[in-house]
Design brief:
Length: 402
């Protein structure tokens, strides 16, 4: 008999985060008595006879049918994430953006309206204001953290409120309780892209948020070797999105699902280290004469530090800061760093560094970038799990040299 690992202890209490990261969602025993989760690399599944086909379609038995509708390796990854997030269910996708687009197609329809905060992922905003706009769906973009603006933007046709927390790249924090309350009062669903926080640092569903979204490419995978996205929420909501995924097909492949399960084993260790490294780096930067501003929710100077302390267990691994100098001087600081490598993305074990003005916003002019709040002297540092003394010494030398 195969049993799913229980997420509760003998007294009925929820198990700790790292215990769930290692064991959650995994059946016991597994196929072939394997300790590791098998990669079920198949496109389709066979039926022994026509009776089994009848039993399957009449839902008398639980089994797989075709690769686009699900895979055993995918299911383990989904149930592990659901256990970590405290969600009714989880659905995985081929990328974070596949999760965003399919979830939005599922929740929205012609003539409906969305409110999205301005500091949210650029491609999410682009999908809403450009692609969905062509299908008769309207989006209002409001300033992050302005709850009155969110409320005023709500119309009778509004179906979804979307925000991120912490946001990219400024680490703004949304008050989850307040955001969820606005949604509930207006009978509008709320969605939080919690990629930067991860379920270790923040669990939006506990504050009444309806849907949580992650780019699992980042902290959940954690090793910069896979692309995946996740949507979590009640069984009912996730079920609706799953039905549409069966049509749109943006599924996670079995190998990526395996890598995600593998990466999640060390999730608790990684994120604790990344929280600590980021805090140390932020404190170092805040005291540095060549640094004009540091955007990290773990610093008391951060505008939403108190909200962050209330609703988060740690403040994440991304530190954004502004150096004294122009676009070129800022590039020189980045080029003088020897440990973090220049790359988009974040959340992996390797530290990565980037100048948003020259990465995600390259094609815009300085003026256009300023309109969307991206300064030329801004650096985004995604800390890995290296030793913080090395990261600080490296950055210190880079700031002196540049
Ligand atoms: C990276 C990212 C996404 C998109 O995820 P992909 O896996 O790259 O498709 C969405 N939201 C946030 C906050 C991200 O950082």
């Amino acid at each position: 008999m195969t049993k799913k690992f229980s997420t509760k202890n003998a007294e009925g209490k929820a198990l700790g985060f790292s215990t769930l990261a290692v064991h959650g969602g995994e059946p016991r025993p597994k196929l072939g008595n394997s300790l590791a989760t098998p990669i079920v690399q198949t496109a389709t599944y066979t039926f022994v006879d026509t009776q089994e086909l009848h039993d399957h379609f009449q839902r008398k038995i639980e089994r797989d049918e075709y690769g686009r509708y699900g895979n055993p390796t995918q299911r383990v990854a989904e149930q592990k994430l659901a256990a970590l997030e405290g969600a009714g269910d989880c659905l995985l996708f081929s990328s974070g953006m596949a999760a965003v687009t399919t979830a939005m197609y599922a929740v929205l329809s012609h003539n409906s309206h969305v409110v999205v905060t301005d500091d949210s992922y650029r491609r999410t905003r682009q999908f809403l204001t450009q692609t969905l706009h062509r299908y008769g769906i309207e989006a209002s973009v409001v300033p992050a953290g302005d709850y009155q603006a969110i409320e005023e933007a709500i119309r009778p046709t509004t179906r979804l409120l979307v925000s991120e927390s912490p946001t990219n790249p400024y680490n703004r924090i949304v008050d989850m309780e307040r955001f969820a309350e606005i949604g509930k009062r207006h009978r509008v669903k709320t969605l939080i892209d919690a990629t930067f926080a991860t379920p270790f640092n923040q669990r939006p569903l506990e504050f009444g948020i309806d849907l949580v979204l992650h780019s699992a490419t980042k902290y959940l995978g954690g090793h910069n070797d896979l692309l995946a996205g996740a949507v979590l929420g009640s069984e009912e909501l996730v079920d609706g999105i799953r039905s549409l995924q069966h049509v749109t097909g943006a599924i996670i492949d079995p190998l990526a699902a395996y890598l995600l399960v593998r990466g999640l084993k060390t999730f608790g260790l990684r994120i604790e280290r990344q929280n600590a490294n980021a805090q140390a780096l932020a404190e170092f930067l805040a005291a540095h004469p060549r640094v004009k501003a540091v955007h990290y929710a773990g610093l008391p100077s951060h505008p939403e530090h108190e909200i962050a302390r209330r609703q988060m267990r740690g403040f994440g691994g991304v530190v954004s800061f502004e150096v004294a100098g122009d676009l070129e001087a800022t590039s020189r600081v980045i080029d003088a760093c020897r440990i973090p490598q220049i790359a988009p993305s974040l959340g992996g074990v390797e530290s990565l560094i980037e100048q948003p003005a020259l990465m995600s916003f390259y094609e815009l002019s300085t003026e256009e970038r300023l309109m969307v709040g991206i300064k030329d002297n801004l650096i985004r540092y995604s800390v890995g799990i290296e030793d913080s003394v090395d990261l600080i010494a490296d950055l210190s030398a880079a700031l002196e040299q540049a």
